[in-house]
Amino acid sequence: MQINSKLPNVGTTIFSIMSKMANDHGAINLAQGFPDFPVSPQLIDRVHHYMKQGFNQYAPMPGVPVLRKAIADKTERCYGWRPNEDQEITVTCGAIEAINSTISALIHAGDEVIIMDPAYDAYEPIINLQGAKAIGVPLRKTDYSIDWQAVESKITDRTKMIMINSPHNPSGAIISADDLRNLEMLTSGTDIFILSDEVYEHILFDGDLHQSVLRSEELRNRSIVTSSFGKTFHATGWRMGYLVAPTGIMAEVRKVHQYNTFTIHTATQYAIADYLADASNYESVAPMYQQKRDFFLNKMASSKFKPIPAKGTYFQLMDFSAISDTGDVEFSEWMTKEIGVATIPMSVFYQDKQDNKVLRFCFAKDEETLAAAAEKLCAL
């Protein structure tokens, strides 16, 4: 049969490729962004509790009410504004389903969506599936900050959405209050949606505060925010996320969500609602990851890799130009096979695949894992 692919230039994701290569060669996997330490026993016990209590059938399409209330409570505590738990919050199958459902609901053929380049690799294919076009705006090479003049220059009458991501995957950069003010000025008086990917909202370092678009009345009236319990509670395999958006926007997104996944694992929703009641369960995440970041940087201090500051997420960029002039994809494959450490080459996150001799390392690992990886890397 002849198949006319909707994504002719898309193959297996780099994350799957590098993780398989790590498994095949017995390498330490600092490539794919998943923790190798346990989920809270308390949280697992709550899931077990609700499964034994019989909470094993379909949950309401937007999410169970007690979880939506807990999300509203957390949002108010963190950002000083409370969304309507019935109309402005939807529980999703991870943040990726939230992003997919949002773009599917709001973006049409011929539309343009501005993304920051480099970007998480799922954004552009999802936009392309709608017959729309992703317009990349290069982040500054020095610190991966946003050049707002460059963003403004890309806005046309076809621009329907601007996507931002903070803390930023893959760079670890974060958005400032000034960035939000610039975004307000650019979008004020327009019909441009903001899709704000905030899955690492609870993983910021050195005392920085997460600048969610939900802090701004002007922005939250046009914004869709995606969040991830999988990232916050290091349970990425549970695929638990949620959306916050104004009522009118959310009504459209739910139309897609109900025919996409419809509903999310019931017992886990009740368990997370209980777990959110204690704010320390998410407020303690940043210090824990900062300790891991600092531990990894300390172990790597004697290496020839040059670290690029990470202000959030659980990823650390390293410049390897002092070690090799090989392309980053080839170098990361060589390191996996010959050195025994798997990473992600940064070029895969760029629209033009530019190669700046930078790799992304995931430090969401036990200290034993990080120390073993650093020992191998310092030998280069």
Question: What can you see in these coordinates?
Answer:
Keywords: Aminotransferase, Pyridoxal phosphate, Transferase. Pfam families: Aminotran_1_2. The chain is of the alpha/beta class. The protein has two domains: 14-32 and 284-378, Aspartate Aminotransferase, domain 1 (Alpha-Beta Complex), CATH 3.90.1150; 41-281, Type I PLP-dependent aspartate aminotransferase-like (Major domain) (Aspartate Aminotransferase, domain 2). The protein is built from 15 helices and 13 strands. The strands form three sheets. A seven-stranded mixed sheet has the order 2-8-7-6-5-3-4, sandwiched between helices. Strands 9-10-13-12 form a four-stranded antiparallel sheet. It has a two-stranded parallel ribbon with strand order 1-11. Strand 9 (306-308) and strand 10 form a beta hairpin. Helix 4 runs parallel beside helix 5. It is globular. The termini are far apart. The mean pLDDT is 96.
Write the topology of this structure.
Layout: H1 14-25, E1 28-29, H2 41-52, H3 65-79, E2 89-92, H4 94-106, E3 112-117, H5 123-129, E4 133-138, H6 148-154, E5 159-165, H7 177-187, E6 193-197, H8 217-220, E7 223-228, H9 229-232, E8 241-244, H10 247-260, H11 266-276, H12 280-283, H13 285-299, E9 306-308, E10 315-319, H14 328-339, E11 341-342, E12 344-345, E13 358-362, H15 367-378
